[in-house]
Design goal:
There is one protein chain. The chain is built from three helices and four strands, in the order E-E-H-E-H-H-E. It is of the alpha+beta class and 107 residues long. A four-stranded antiparallel sheet has the order 3-1-2-4. It is globular, with a radius of gyration of 15 Å.
């Protein structure tokens, strides 16, 4: 089977040593991961994030580049380059990490 790169959005919770900002309640990550199917890409991503001391809670798949293009999405060159890198290096690329904060804690 041929490796493909999948776009995954991962929600992580808190864990000791996770490197997230102290006040954060978790984070959202955009990842690009290779696999023969989305299930394999998800397994690899979760394993890598756990090795990085993160606590994956939920993973949502957004498909491969061809699937995203067929759905009418515009995929910028920068994102395509990260996908190509994930495929070439057989790696999980974390493209973006957005910490989550509890809005009620600020009141």
């Amino acid at each position: 089977m041929v490796q493909q790169v999948y776009t995954l959005v991962v929600e992580v919770g808190r864990r000791a040593g996770d490197g997230l900002p102290e006040a954060a309640t978790g984070a959202g990550l955009i990842c690009y991961a290779g696999g023969v199917d989305e299930e394999e890409a998800v397994r690899e991503t979760v394993a890598i994030l756990r090795q990085a001391e993160l606590a994956p809670l939920e993973v949502t798949g957004h498909g491969t580049l061809p699937e995203r293009l067929a759905a009418g999405e515009e995929v910028p060159e920068e994102e395509r380059a990260l996908m190509a890198r994930a495929l070439a290096e057989n790696a999980v690329i974390v493209a973006e990490m957005t910490p989550f904060y509890d809005a009620s804690a600020e009141a």
